[in-house]
Design a protein that fits this description.
Layout: H1 2-7, H2 9-12, H3 14-38, E1 56-60, E2 64-67, E3 72-76, E4 81-85, E5 106-109, H4 112-115, H5 125-133, E6 137-139, H6 148-157, E7 166-171, H7 173-179, E8 193-197, E9 200-204, H8 219-230, H9 232-246, E10 248-249, E11 252-253, H10 268-285, E12 289-294, H11 298-307, H12 312-322, E13 327-331, H13 333-343, H14 360-376
Parallel strand pairs: 5-6, 5-7, 7-12, 12-13
Antiparallel strand pairs: 1-2, 3-4, 8-9, 10-11
Helix pairs in contact: 5-14, 6-10, 8-9
Length: 377
Amino acid sequence: MQEAQQQNWFYRNPRKARWLVFALCFAFLELSCRLLVATGLLHHETYPTTEQPVFWAYIDPVVGMWRYPNKRFNHATDCFDVDYETNSVGARDPERALESPDPRRVVVLGDSFVEGHGVARADRLSDLLESRTGVEHLNFGTSGSFGTIQEWLFYQEYASKYDHSDVIIFILPANDFDDNDINEWGRKVYRPYLREADGEYEVYYPVTFENRATSSRSTAKVIKNTIENNVYLLNAIRWGIHIYKENKTDGKPLIAFDNTPTYSNYSAEDFGMMKYALGEIARIAADRNVYLFTIPTETDAKAAQESGYRFPLVDELNEFANGIDNVQYIDLLPSFLQYMQENNVVYDDFTLGCNSHWGALGNKVAADVVYEALYKN
């Protein structure tokens, strides 16, 4: 029996045997990860593989985050594969003239929901409205955590220069308050903030434009990202670590996600800064109509279904809008809840599925609400 064991290849080549077992285990796990990704059961993140950002970047001296002009970018994830294109001013929109003979033209402001994160341009709410009405809807929404302070400054410096009759602003309570909070961002990140001075707000930047963080990547980081884009097992491990770190409090992993409605999760100071920025947009708009819309999340929908439609943010925004002649406020949540009830769908059906951004259905329902507000009343 001992002699038979000695003839075994594994006994004669222990080091090679260990490497062979490791390779077989790695191949099995890699194949399993690829199958799980193919069936949609496992997330696969695509990490950037360029030394400098090629689409979104901190390149604008007024608002910080914006896009390079005349660029094309392919955004591919588990659940979508979309090409983004920018015009000569960096907007994900057709080329627009500053002057227009049309009596009506609409400026649309917002973040990644408005930009159309993960959806084809034709499926975005602004394009749906333009196709339906024949009225140009100039889409100046962008990803990159674009808050109400940035929207105000962008409108003041850029968008207001275009002939327009109406302004639409989409507010995402889930992160717009954080976007206006310097404590949520590093001191090297070039973003505009508000601070009180002599009873008034003033705009400031925590770092000069020349000394800002540029999000550049080292050669080692580029190589690491390239490997992890192509080795699914390593990609899954990295994503798992990211989720673990994102859902920790005081070093202890959370058992469940925070279910606090985003419509209730803000302070008086948070709302004061948002209200000031929105008021400045209304002032610059002058006699133009300004429409405010709040974008709900699944937690807001659940809270409304379980505890009733009672949110302090809705009351405060209604009070704010009622105090300014050219401002109207509409919350999207009641229409989303009504659609869910009438069509027997869940809130997730409005989203892309792999994340909470609107998919085609979410954009359609939102566009229907905007159409009723702007073109039916």
